[in-house]
Specification:
The structure holds two protein chains of two kinds. By secondary structure, chain A is mostly helical. In chain A, 54% of the residues lie in helices and 11% in strands. Chain A contains eight helices and five strands. Chain B has a domain of 182 residues. Chain B contains nine helices and eight strands. Classes of the chains: A mainly alpha, B mainly alpha. At the A-B interface, helix 2, helix 3, helix 4, strand 1 and strand 2 of A face helix 1, strand 2, strand 3, helix 2 and strand 8 of B. Chain A: This is DNA replication complex GINS protein SLD5. Chain A: Keywords: Chromosome partition, DNA replication, Nucleus.
């Protein structure tokens, strides 16, 4: 510890949050959002998961290195490291699984436009495309091929009715305000606007909450 | 391999989150800093107090390596004060959440500000911490405010560090009794808020001060009712919207200037 560290400790204006904590906060928030939102949210573009994955990999290597050491002192540190590693991996796993569940449910919808495809990560896109191709081939070989050719499509929109199932963007969600902001909500009898304060918890439709969440003024809870 | 759970966090997931809350421990043994994925842990030097995540604090507690200093809001006097506020002063709303951590204002030395507004976004790019990463369950947290994960943290402290809670001056049983009362009072409020849901015409409902577990408890019901009201009222709403659109553009412009006033 040198003089800078000491100064940093006592200086209240120096409030930088360490990168690791920042990542954990962001991972937790992304996970809660993905678990709560009715639709698939964009894959974080800021390299969060690349960073997390390489950190996890490094930590696993460290665990392997430490397992040989039977000194009781490092042994306890090992328990702590492994516990934390499992907790961290649970978050990542649950996040990815929640996304796969959404992709499985509305595969064609997320593949339908470029804008929606951009929400998927590279791996997810490969998975969704392949999954859909397998499914379509299976349908074709089992029953679709005996239909007239003009009825064989799975994404027909010509008759005015869309065959592609979409998530319900109007479902209600809970959000917590991170900053003071104006919240606007559409209702059955009337539309409502009020200026919410930081840490207010509000129930509203996802479509109304989305801009606030995207702007970072609110988070899903 | 896809997750078979409905949208919204379950009880188990909420409890998992609560274990990330920082609590204050009083170490009984030295422990060097450990490099974790969530950052380095501070080195433990008895008898210096240190803030650690709850899961780690419980691990240390079980191994008798540390005691946990319960947060001030868990003090019986603080709990009874909150109960009084919840029943007498504000019988319909939840009590206030803890104020955001004070932040020093670099432009005005010596003056700390709480919270942020839209107009001072100069520190953009920095993530805003929220529960469970705010230090709302440490020994420095303010008394008289229930943090977001109050019930989960209180329950696990009572279950695994009952002797430390008892050091507050009341037996763990007494604290447990007060918590039970608080749960009852607040559950009644949650239930009565559903009558507000019946006429959920406005599209917004605020539940300021509600806790994570309480939300998880009634999430399915509340969201179900809100969605149900929306679906049954879908045609009324569409008709109303059409009508409003017909009323012309003037209203729209008025609406926009109102919004600006709101900010």
């Amino acid at each position: 510890m040198d003089i800078d560290d000491i100064l940093r400790d006592v200086d209240p204006t120096f409030h930088t949050i360490p990168q690791e904590k920042r990542d954990l906060q962001e991972l937790t928030r992304t996970w809660i959002a993905e678990r709560s939102a009715p639709e698939l949210l964009p894959w974080p573009a800021n390299g969060l998961f690349e960073r997390i994955n390489s950190n996890i990999k490094r930590q696993i290597e460290k665990v392997e290195e430490m397992t040989g050491d039977m000194d009781p002192k490092t042994n306890f540190a090992l328990i702590v490291i492994q516990t934390e590693l499992e907790r961290y991996r649970y978050l990542v796993r649950s996040y990815l699984r929640a996304r796969i569940a959404k992709i499985d449910k509305h595969t064609l919808h997320y593949l339908s436009t470029d804008e929606l495809r951009a929400r998927l990560s590279e791996m997810e896109l490969a998975y969704a495309t392949r999954h859909q191709a397998l499914l379509h081939n299976h349908y074709l070989s089992s029953f679709l091929s005996s239909f007239p050719p003009n009825l064989q499509n799975l994404n027909d929109t010509s008759v005015g009715l869309n065959m592609i199932d979409t998530p319900d963007l109007e479902s209600a969600v809970f959000i917590r305000l991170l900053k003071n902001a104006v919240v606007r909500g559409r209702g059955v009898d009337a539309d409502d606007v009020f200026s919410a304060r930081e840490s207010d918890i509000v129930i509203l439709r996802w479509a109304d909450a989305k801009p606030l969440v995207a702007a970072g003024s609110a988070e899903l809870v | 391999m896809a997750l078979p759970l409905p949208p919204g966090l379950t009880h188990a997931e909420v409890a998992f989150l609560a274990e990330m809350e920082l609590v204050t421990v009083v170490p009984r043994q030295r422990l060097e800093s450990i490099e974790l994925l969530g950052g380095k842990t501070p080195p433990l030097r008895p008898p210096h107090r240190t803030d650690l995540p709850l899961w780690l604090a419980l691990l240390l507690k079980k191994q008798r390596r540390a005691n946990i200093a319960p947060p001030p809001w868990l003090h019986p006097s603080s709990l009874s004060e909150i109960i009084k506020r919840e029943t007498k002063e504000n019988p319909t709303t939840f009590s206030e959440p803890p104020p955001p951590p004070a932040r020093a204002d670099p432009s005005r030395p010596g003056i700390a500000s709480r919270g942020r507004d839209h107009d001072n976004d100069d520190d953009d790019g920095d993530v805003i911490l929220s529960a469970p990463f705010r230090p709302s369950c440490t020994a420095d947290a303010p008394a008289g405010y229930l943090p977001y994960h109050w019930l989960e943290v209180a329950e696990s402290l009572l279950a695994h560090a009952g002797d430390d809670v008892a050091s507050l001056g009341a037996s763990a049983g007494e604290v447990r009794g007060l918590l039970r009362d608080l749960v009852e009072v607040r559950a009644a409020k949650m239930r009565s808020s559903t009558s507000q849901l019946e006429g959920f015409g406005g599209g917004l409902m605020s539940l300021r001060g509600v806790g994570a577990m309480e939300l998880a408890e009634s999430r399915g019901f509340v969201l179900g009712v809100v969605d149900g009201v929306r679906k049954t009222g879908a045609s009324t709403e569409a008709a109303r919207r059409e009508e409003e659109e017909e009323r012309g553009q003037d209203d729209d412009e008025d609406g926009e200037s109102d919004e600006e006033m709101g900010i």
